[in-house]
TrEMBL record:
UniProtKB keywords: Methyltransferase, Porphyrin biosynthesis, S-adenosyl-L-methionine, Transferase
Associated pathway: Porphyrin-containing compound metabolism; siroheme biosynthesis; precorrin-2 from uroporphyrinogen III: step 1/1
Nucleotidyltransferase listed as a keyword: no
Name recorded for this polypeptide: uroporphyrinogen-III C-methyltransferase
Enzyme class: transferase
Gene name per UniProt: cobA
GO biological process: methylation
One of the Pfam families matching this protein, by short name: HEM4
Record-level Gene Ontology MF annotations: uroporphyrin-III C-methyltransferase activity
Tetrapyrrole methylase domain: residues covered: 5-221
EC number: 2.1.1.107
Cross-referenced InterPro entries: 4pyrrol_Mease, 4pyrrol_Methylase_sf, 4pyrrol_syn_uPrphyn_synt_sf, 4pyrrol_synth_uPrphyn_synth, 4pyrrole_Mease_sub1, 4pyrrole_Mease_sub2, CobA/CysG_C, Siro_Cobalamin_biosynth
Domain Tetrapyrrole biosynthesis uroporphyrinogen III synthase: 272-509
Length: 519
């Protein structure tokens, strides 16, 4: 049975610029084949069992999925996986039909009889100048815009750019892939008649939190680009519209602009915080430090579900615990009715919401979303001396069990899931290194638990050694989700520069802004 391929535009970088249609395709994909310039934050929309491939800069540069070295390998993968009956998403930076080789890939699929579709994306040709405060058209400046390849690949194919036509036009020029050829392209335009005083700009990493914009007259732009050390990816804009940046720039004025903020949650749980951080201008980086696995022995969880008549209530500590518990009930062909007459306690609003999604309202949600808060709530209601079943991860504090037993109750702990350390691509860990070591630096790191902190340190140490791991941690602001996580950091010899006032993404964002504002 033949599968299907969706050729999807991922947008320029900002994860919020992915279209709703693109997000929907990612949620259904069996296989995702992504370009190198695709933001890894988009992979949080995928199913946990998706088979992920990503194009690399070189055969030795790690990717967020299995590395794909070249276009021929991409074509082969699309054909093989779709021919096997799978749904494939070919995820391309920007828009697949704007210098994206989308039509070439579609021709390959059509020749093999594989059905496909195009899902448009936001092109960097428009979005990068816009993020720099440069409109590509304006009634007082430019009646048209030309999108031009600044790369010689088209010339090699016998389709050279008509520089004389472009130089004499009245519209804005946007040259894609133009950093390496910036000087040559500027000289060609000037030689063809363009005024060397024409305002010009080069924008690197448009819509990303580390976006950089260099502005200069056309005759001087190459010197400025070299002096600033700008590297790909970037677009070049030529035209009087560049002058409007003085009044219409906005992206670089947001509070976290220019700051790289690392989120260390599980891949499937990082999306909301990444979007909040990006919305404040940060270059939000997902470094997965947790992965969820079933317990080594499922019989204990199934046995607890079969023995509900032996307990008065069930404590669930996290959304993952909720999923594990209700999956265990479903495995026994039971549902929420099995909890009739039982007191259900959920630690945290996220856990409570996960219960709501399963069709049941928790009886107890402590205002302080941690073990101490639950113990205090149970004590105030005279419920500590009951028979309690607690479903949680394989590691955690025994505070609840100690309090229940001290009050004369019974406490049964069951492991619903294990938290393990996932493999992190080398390309990603290298990007966290300070610039003098070949990376892009790290300004803040968000930790939601002591375990994420331990896993992060272990991952960076394995990849780059203890000295560089400590340098990354020493230069960055460390932000903890609540006092328990702050205490865990201190026990590891790390400082918590800011502590979120609540266990929500909004509270974590506020703590990051506060930490960055302190300098």
């Amino acid at each position: 049975m033949t599968g299907f391929v969706s050729i999807v535009g991922a947008g320029p970088w900002d994860p919020e610029l992915l279209t709703l249609a693109g997000r929907e395709r990612l949620t259904r994909a069996d296989v995702v084949i992504a370009d190198y310039l695709v933001n890894p934050a988009l992979f949080t929309h995928c199913r946990a069992d998706v088979h992920l491939f990503q194009r690399t800069e070189s055969p030795h540069a790690g990717a967020h999925g299995e590395p794909v070295p070249d276009q021929e390998a991409i074509n082969r993968l699309m054909v093989e996986r779709a021919a096997a009956g799978l749904y494939v998403v070919r995820l391309k930076g920007g828009d697949p039909m704007v210098f994206g080789r989308g039509a070439e890939e579609a021709e390959v699929l059509a020749a093999r009889g594989i059905p496909f579709e195009f899902v448009p994306g936001v092109s960097a040709a428009i979005a990068a100048p816009e993020a720099a405060g440069i409109p590509v058209t304006h009634r007082d400046h430019a009646p048209c815009v030309s999108l031009v390849s600044g790369y010689e690949a088209y010339e090699k194919g016998g389709r050279a750019v008509d520089w004389e036509h472009l130089a004499k036009g009245t519209g804005t020029l946007v040259l894609m892939m133009s950093v390496r050829n910036c000087r040559q392209n500027a000289e060609r335009l000037i030689a063809a008649g363009r005024d060397p005083a024409t305002p010009s700009a080069v924008i690197r990493w448009g819509t990303r939190g580390i976006q950089r914009t260099v502005v200069a007259p056309l005759g001087q732009i190459a010197d400025r680009v070299e002096a600033e050390g700008l590297r790909p990816p970037a677009v070049m804009v030529v035209g009087s519209v560049v002058d409007l940046r003085r009044t219409t720039q906005w992206f670089e004025r947001r509070p976290l602009f220019g700051k790289r903020v690392v989120v260390t949650r599980a891949r499937q749980q990082a999306s909301d915080l990444l979007q909040l951080l990006a919305g404040q201008g940060a270059d939000a980086v997902a470094v997965p430090c947790l992965d969820i696995a079933p317990p080594e022995d499922l019989s204990a969880l199934s046995g607890a579900a079969q023995s509900l008549d032996e307990v008065d209530g069930v404590i669930l500590s996290s959304p993952n615990g909720v999923r594990a518990w209700f999956d265990a009930l479903a495995g026994l062909e039971l549902d929420v009715r099995a909890l009739h007459g039982k007191c259900l306690a959920a630690i945290g609003t996220g856990t409570a919401n996960a219960c709501w999604e399963r069709g049941i309202r928790p009886d107890i949600v402590p205002s302080a979303a941690r073990s101490e808060g639950l113990v205090e709530t149970l004590a105030s209601r005279g419920l500590l001396a009951r028979r309690w079943l607690h479903v949680r991860a394989d590691e955690g504090r025994d505070l609840i069990g100690e309090a229940v037993r001290a009050a004369g109750g019974t406490y049964r702990l069951v492991v619903g899931y294990r938290v393990i350390r996932p493999k992190v691509p080398g390309l990603l860990t290298r990007s966290l290194l300070p610039p003098e070591h070949g990376g892009e630096g790290t300004d803040a790191i968000c930790f939601a638990s002591g375990k994420t902190a331990r896993h992060f340190v272990e991952t960076i140490t394995e990849a780059h050694g203890e000295a560089l791991a400590r340098e990354i941690l020493g230069r960055a602001r460390l932000v903890a989700l609540g006092p328990v996580t702050a205490g865990a950091l201190e026990s590891m010899g790390l400082r918590a520069d800011a502590v979120a006032g609540g266990l929500t993404d909004e509270a974590m964002l506020a703590a990051v802004v506060e930490a960055m504002a302190r300098g």
